Amino acid sequence: MSALTAETAPYLEAFRARGGSGEPAWLAERRRVAAERFEELGFPTRRQEQWRFTNLAPLTRSAFPPRGVEGRMRIELAGEPPRGVWLGSVQEALRERPELLRAALDETEIAGAQAFALLNAALFDDGYILALEPGIELEHPVEIVHRGEGGGSFHPRSAILLGERSSATVVETFQGSGTSWTNWVSTARLAANAHLRHVMMQESGPEAIQIGLARAALASGAHYENFVLTLGARLSRIDIHAAIEGEGARCGLGGATLLRDSQEATIATLVDHAAPGGETREIFKSVVDGRAHGVFLGKIAVRPGADKTDANQVSRNLLLSPRAAVDTKPELEILADDVKCSHGATVGDLDANALFYLRARGIDEGAARALLIEAFAADAIDGALPAGPIRDRLRDRLSAWLEQRGS
Amino acid sequence: MYLLEINNLHARVGDGREILKGIDLKVAPGEVHAIMGPNGSGKSTLAGVLAGKPGYEVTEGQVLYEGRDLLALAPDERARAGIFLAFQYPVEIPGVNNMYFLRAALNAVRRERGENELDAGQFLKAVRAKLKLLDIGEDLLQRAVNVGFSGGEKKRNEIFQMAMLEPRLAILDETDSGLDIDALRVVSNGVNRLRDPQRAIVLITHYQRLLDYVVPDRVHVLGDGKIVQSGDKSLAVELEKRGYGHLGSAA
């Protein structure tokens, strides 16, 4: 048995053993095709450019038998969902609104071949769906909490479907303990002039593995904002793919990644400008301590005809220990005219002059360093989110991380 | 007893060049000393060595502050012991709120002195009283440390910090450089109000201008890493007339 087969075998066996009774034929067929394609592809390897820097060893060393996600996810919204809003689990959607689930399943990913997303497509059995009718503005954020406990793997699949001019904020938290692997996929579809703010907080336990893919499709004038705070997990990788499909759509991606010990974390973004007049803003910051390894891959593609695209990407990384490492790889592929695209990447230590200035005022070295680290990471949070309770929560998590560092 | 006693201080920079070549200086509480000298004479190096700035190596001599070995202390320990350096180029620190920073600094100093830490309300009260002295708007405190400050605002912010921290020994490194006459007057008033029988001030400056406003007890001229001449305030006036040229050759 080849290494490749050995890695995929437990998951394919689980797929074959899966009952799936009572599911509609279209869904069963879709799962079958996805499983087949996953079997062909196998796990990603470091020979693939997009996976070159990510060390998947903790995931490939042992098997994580799939387990149901039922009861491991909580959906919260202050008050009852208003008229024109559907919010519930995938299982509920399958019973009540199967067309929502169907709309959420993106067929292009089968051809697009993201192996873990295919595995998710074959195995998912829960997740959440939020659908807003045109013109609906959700006042309170939708809160989703995922908890992967114990061992095994979980494959939640979610979708956010926003009608024209509708707007929503979704705060999704990934928690959990033990050595579980969470392999999630989330799809967002924004109709014309819709607005989505999607905030993800990854704070799993130190042995957990988190792999995620967030996809967003933006119609004309739509505005998609995604922010990822990465704190937990032994191995994590989040891919964010945004497709600018309509004219004048805007995409804001941001993230703060804080790593220590031997944590391994990758953020990989792809913004595909297929329509003119689109705008992309990306600010990603990482703070890497101990023997941890952070990766940022940021691709911005501007297709022929996507004229007047305005895109800017920043990746700033702070190394706090001699054994910490960061790989950052910006990539621009511009095939249109009259575009403004720029990127900047830095990897470095704390500013020695700033450190001395703080110490020269009586602040001890530990506190001065903590102040500068906090300022560095907070800049990404404050730049992405307006003042308010969500920003405060992220800032609190950041402070807590720094306090742990001091102790 | 002297507050600061520098004996035969030699120091070099990272590339091995010797900048200070035997400084001797004694400063008593209540005194204001001016250290003047041409560019490259070692003025800022002296300030940096006293404050504990990284990048300098002391190769010979000693510095006593309140009778103890100053050079054995870390920069933050020196600050908490009552030494304050007003920076020639105050550092911009994006993301660190000026008010938050100053409260952290003040409480670190107060803890060291065995005084209670100030809560946000008490701190604000203390701040408002000193802000007026230096003609600083409260909005400056809400901004990040020195970020987007004009040259004059940065220098005023330094003296404001000094007023808040109430050091025993203040070293002002070219605080007058880059100030217009109005700003110079405001800064000088701020410094004069901090003159105190218990406190010593060392003014490092290239020009005599500042000394019209803050009148020193002693003036020293630094040339090529040594004090080549000392005198009272009339020495500064003489230097203004005759320049540093003749001293350089005499040294």
What order do the helices and strands come in, and which of them pair?
The complex is a heterodimer of chains A (407) and B (251).
Chain A (H helix, E strand, L loop, with lengths): L2 H15 L7 H17 L15 H4 L12 E4 L8 E5 H7 L1 H7 L3 H5 L2 H9 L4 E5 L9 E7 L4 E2 L2 E6 L4 E10 L4 E10 L4 E8 L6 E10 L4 E8 L4 E10 L5 E10 L4 E10 L5 E10 L4 E10 L7 E10 L5 E10 L5 E9 L3 H8 L5 H20 L4 H18 L1
Helix pairs in contact in A: 2-7, 4-5, 8-9, 9-10
Chain B lengths: L3 E10 L4 E10 L4 E5 L6 H9 L4 E10 L2 E2 L5 H6 L2 E4 L6 E5 H15 L7 H14 L5 H4 L1 E2 L5 H15 L3 E5 L7 H13 L6 E6 L3 H5 L4 E6 L2 E6 L2 H9 L2 H6 L1
Parallel strand pairs in B: 3-10, 3-11, 6-9, 9-10
Antiparallel strand pairs in B: 1-2, 1-4, 4-5, 7-8, 11-12
Helix pairs in contact in B: 6-7
Outline the structure in words.
The complex is a heterodimer of chains A (407) and B (251). By secondary structure, chain A is of the alpha/beta class. In chain A, 27% of the residues lie in helices and 38% in strands. Chain A has ten helices and 19 strands. Chain A has helices at 3-17, 25-41, 57-60, 90-96, 98-104, 108-112, 115-123, 352-359, 365-384, 389-406, and strands spanning 73-76, 85-89, 128-132, 142-148, 153-154, 157-162, 167-176, 181-190, 195-202, 209-218, 223-230, 235-244, 250-259, 264-273, 279-288, 293-302, 310-319, 325-334, 340-348. In chain A, strands 2, 3, 5, 6, 8, 10, 12, 14, 16 and 18 form a ten-stranded mixed beta sheet that branches. In chain A, helix 2 (25-41) packs antiparallel against helix 7 (115-123) and helix 8 packs across helix 9. With 251 residues, chain B is α/β, with parallel strands linked by helices. Chain B has a single domain (32-48, 74-250), classed as P-loop containing nucleotide triphosphate hydrolases (Rossmann fold), CATH 3.40.50. Chain B has ten helices and twelve strands. A six-stranded mixed beta sheet of chain B has the order 6-9-10-3-11-12, sandwiched between helices. In chain B, strand 1 and strand 2 form a beta hairpin. In chain B, helix 6 runs parallel beside helix 7. The longest helix of chain B has 15 residues, at 98-112. Chain B is globular and about 55 Å long. The chains are: A alpha/beta (407), B alpha/beta (251). The A-B interface holds A 351-354, 356-365, 367-368, 371-372, 374-376, 378-379, 382 and B 51-54, 74-76, 78-80, 85, 87, 90-96, 101-102, 104-105, 108-109, 112, 144-145, 161, 165.
